[in-house]
Amino acid sequence: MLMVMRFLKRGSKAFTSQQHTILSAAAAIAIIYGLSAVMGFIRNRLLSGYFGDSPELGIYFAADDIPSLTLSLIVSGSLSAAFIPVFTKQFKQNEKEAWSLTSSVLNISLVLFAVLAISVIFGANILAREIIARDSSLTPERIIMLANLMRIMMLAQLVLIFSSFFTSILQSFKRFVVPAFAPVMYNVGIIIFLLLFAKPFGIYAPAWGMVFGSILHMLIQYIVVRKLGFIHKLKFEYKNLGVRKIYKLMIPRTIGQAAQKLLDPLYTNLALFISAPSNVILTFATDIQTLPVRIFGMSIGQAALPILANAYKDDDESKFKQLLIKTIHQVVFFVLPASVIIFILRVPLVRLTVGASKYSWEATVMTAYTLGFYSISLVAQSLVLILARGFYVLHNTKTPLKIGIYSIIINAILGIIFVRYLHLGVWSLALAYSIGSIFNAGLLFFSLSKKMGGFDFTNFIAPVNKIGFASLLTGVALYIPLKAMDALVFDTTRTLGLLTLTGTVSVIGFFSYIFFAWMFKIEELGLVFSSLKKMKKPASESFN
């Protein structure tokens, strides 16, 4: 009993405590993102189990594009980058004024969102017909279904406005775990509604599950934010200098986020142009490929922002550059082998995550094919999150905005050419996205290097080359046993055999990569072991 109490005490402290180094904070976030990914896969497995690759599921996925775009226009990823530095500085000077500023920004954002939400709710039929489903083969009845689902999902975005603010507040206090855990609760809400209401209410069940999940997403963060001292007040201090500065910083980032989000309805339209099930394939492949980006790129990026900001605040440019390069190396160390593993295991991964009885074999193969084209840009997608934050720390939001828009234009043009003119399959959208992501990361890196007076490319490239060789050898070590055991050992027509094969090969790949990283003396491996040792310390030491 004593051991259980100690475990709970340690877990409670870890859940609400501060994280002070990039790797320790990223590790905490990554673990929770991993759990969130598991819940996401359970959600997708249930969706494919109930609806397969049906047009209804394709419509469900399509319906979320406009509501998500609406949230991005108001807050989403732009909020934390603008809010955290202003709020942190204000909080150090005057806590009461900082909380007042928070209420004002939240209330103004709610008013702006309400205007957009009302427009979407009343114009849903037009948006569904003229934007999302334009030139598709959807019947009028299914377009009406698309519009109705869109209206329901707007309610979820309203709740997520509050959640976005709570996330930014918690990250300002270097509490990363609870915001990372919130998406777990979001998926729990969808899963509950799928299990309880999928049969009587069909595709509307997961839509209402999104509303329920968003409430859980908000509540779990509100509990901690309330303890930190936040009390929501009906204030609209739009003349406040802090409020104006936040929105001034948000505008370029919001434009970039909105432009990025505009790709979603465009890609959905292109997928629906091929067929409604193609949108299911594209969505499932996208969900799988975002796993390493979220677990490593997003977690390290979120953890790095306040720590990089502190280094820059101390006017130590050399330390800032060194910390940024180390952060990039850490991302490459984790994501590059993950992309190799995903590419080689793409078919087993798709079969395990969405390969329910109603999900056809043709859809499974095409999902794996699409996933393969996504995997070539996983490192680039992750590095964009780090490099953009490097610019934000320098109070430069315009450069990543311009580069982001250039890459989005490339994505859009290639997607349209591939699908509408060359008549390629849905996999070509993943290829277009990968090309745009690689362009984005490359241009961000060279632009940031130029702005910082140049990076030490010799010290930068050498670790990347080592990680590349280790990942390549890991791929070989994966591929050979995968083919051998698939042919001679396991019956992969059964779920248990497929799961055993995937698990066995993944373990082989994991230890192979550790061995090759040790053989090439990759520094990041030592940092990982050091972090693991710190995590084993007693709670009184680990979380102080």
Automatic annotation (TrEMBL):
<dbReference type="InterPro" id="IPR051050">
    <property type="entry name" value="Lipid_II_flippase_MurJ/MviN"/>
</dbReference>
<dbReference type="GO" id="GO:0008360">
    <property type="term" value="P:regulation of cell shape"/>
</dbReference>
<protein>
    <recommendedName>
        <fullName>Probable lipid II flippase MurJ</fullName>
    </recommendedName>
</protein>
<feature type="transmembrane region" description="Helical">
    <location>
        <begin position="369"/>
        <end position="391"/>
    </location>
</feature>
<feature type="transmembrane region" description="Helical">
    <location>
        <begin position="331"/>
        <end position="349"/>
    </location>
</feature>
<comment type="function">
    <text>Involved in peptidoglycan biosynthesis. Transports lipid-linked peptidoglycan precursors from the inner to the outer leaflet of the cytoplasmic membrane.</text>
</comment>
<keyword id="KW-0133">Cell shape</keyword>
<keyword id="KW-0472">Membrane</keyword>
<feature type="transmembrane region" description="Helical">
    <location>
        <begin position="176"/>
        <end position="197"/>
    </location>
</feature>
<dbReference type="InterPro" id="IPR004268">
    <property type="entry name" value="MurJ"/>
</dbReference>
<feature type="transmembrane region" description="Helical">
    <location>
        <begin position="108"/>
        <end position="128"/>
    </location>
</feature>
<feature type="transmembrane region" description="Helical">
    <location>
        <begin position="460"/>
        <end position="480"/>
    </location>
</feature>
<keyword id="KW-1003">Cell membrane</keyword>
<dbReference type="GO" id="GO:0034204">
    <property type="term" value="P:lipid translocation"/>
</dbReference>
<dbReference type="GO" id="GO:0009252">
    <property type="term" value="P:peptidoglycan biosynthetic process"/>
</dbReference>
<feature type="transmembrane region" description="Helical">
    <location>
        <begin position="21"/>
        <end position="42"/>
    </location>
</feature>
<feature type="transmembrane region" description="Helical">
    <location>
        <begin position="66"/>
        <end position="87"/>
    </location>
</feature>
<feature type="transmembrane region" description="Helical">
    <location>
        <begin position="203"/>
        <end position="225"/>
    </location>
</feature>
<feature type="transmembrane region" description="Helical">
    <location>
        <begin position="500"/>
        <end position="520"/>
    </location>
</feature>
<dbReference type="Pfam" id="PF03023">
    <property type="entry name" value="MurJ"/>
</dbReference>
<keyword id="KW-0961">Cell wall biogenesis/degradation</keyword>
<keyword id="KW-1133">Transmembrane helix</keyword>
<dbReference type="GO" id="GO:0015648">
    <property type="term" value="F:lipid-linked peptidoglycan transporter activity"/>
</dbReference>
<keyword id="KW-0813">Transport</keyword>
<keyword id="KW-0812">Transmembrane</keyword>
<feature type="transmembrane region" description="Helical">
    <location>
        <begin position="403"/>
        <end position="423"/>
    </location>
</feature>
<feature type="transmembrane region" description="Helical">
    <location>
        <begin position="429"/>
        <end position="448"/>
    </location>
</feature>
<keyword id="KW-0573">Peptidoglycan synthesis</keyword>
<dbReference type="GO" id="GO:0071555">
    <property type="term" value="P:cell wall organization"/>
</dbReference>
<comment type="pathway">
    <text>Cell wall biogenesis; peptidoglycan biosynthesis.</text>
</comment>
<dbReference type="GO" id="GO:0005886">
    <property type="term" value="C:plasma membrane"/>
</dbReference>
<feature type="transmembrane region" description="Helical">
    <location>
        <begin position="148"/>
        <end position="169"/>
    </location>
</feature>
<comment type="similarity">
    <text>Belongs to the MurJ/MviN family.</text>
</comment>
